[in-house]
Amino acid sequence: MSAIRTSAAEDQTALSAPLSMTEAIPGCMSSPLSPRVMTLEEAADQLIHAERKARKQCAAVFSCGLILGIALGLLMAALINGSLRTVEPPAAREMASESDQNDTHAVIGSPIGPANRCPALSETGDWEGERQMQPHQDGTDEQMGYHDLPEAAAGETPRHSADAKGDGEEHADGATSVASLGCSMQFVVVVSLAAVAALSAYQTLQLGALRTEINAIHTMPVTFPDMSLTVLQYASLHGWLGAKKPLGVVYRSSGDGTTYSDLLRCVGDKTGLVIIVRRGRYVFGVYISAGLQPPDDPTSYRRCNCDVWWFSLVGHFDKPTKIKIDRGQWVFVAGREGSASGASVYISGNLYLGDGGVWPAADIRSCYQYTNNKNVPAGYMGDRDKFGEALLGGSKKFMADEIEVLQVVGSE
Fold this sequence. Notes:
42% helix, 2 domains, 14 strands, transmembrane helix
């Protein structure tokens, strides 16, 4: 699109001037051209505006989706971390309980515990250690626990029973918390997915509308009523030519006639010609810098070395594409009673206009064409023959629906 924009910008000053041809030939399309209501400048501006709008929409939708995804990820991470801190697994509790019991045993069995205290003399002269080592004499002593811990009183719930009950309640609370957290996370995920789906649907609708708008501009006829090119095709040709002025129609077979004499009459001695061939869904052509000057001898032909390059506008690539010819750039023009390799016009790159095989055909639209495979750019999607040669018209020999000849306005 950058090349199209550049050429469209360069057209702004040129299109503001009135359009006129250097020479008006009666009965040919080279007569002065009247512009349509919408100019090429306006159409190109609409195309650029639609492109920019599409890019802004895509950037906005992408940014919203990215922010939403990051926020969703952070929220889920926070919820998961909170659940891990709030709900302690039962295995962790059991390990903590065993660790506490081991700590208790360690304290009791330590050198400073009751069993390992150093014996000391009491006021009566007895050793306390001996008194403590004596067997228990009464039932009160028997009620003491293994580690001198008192036994639970009558009617009091044992400590271990209370602990077990508390653990059960904690397990129940933890299960409830996990269930609530799971429901909350599912709700958040569902809402987020719904938001993403709605955003994607909105993006699809917006891009579809913009694509329709851009395609409509691409297929919009250009300013000249006698030219069948779309805005995109015209801008592509204008950019390849590097012209500072608009293109005008010199010849069109549907309006000027289909004979070789009709073509020569309309073209005259003009140079810098763009020949466009239409056949079904295919639109292609060739540029020649020399023009179509027949020889002085009407029964002979004339060869002229000149700049030649080809192009495809529709049916071969995903966009208008220029095709360069590496060598052998010339054009053969037959006299009105002569032949140029069995045709009226033979252009390097293998295009024969008015081809009849042995002798030129009466209709200039009778064509024979193929492009050497080595000259075909990458991305070609059109037809080929068994040797891999590109057939820009769909087959080697065909009858064109229309042949047009254009020229930059003001050129000699």
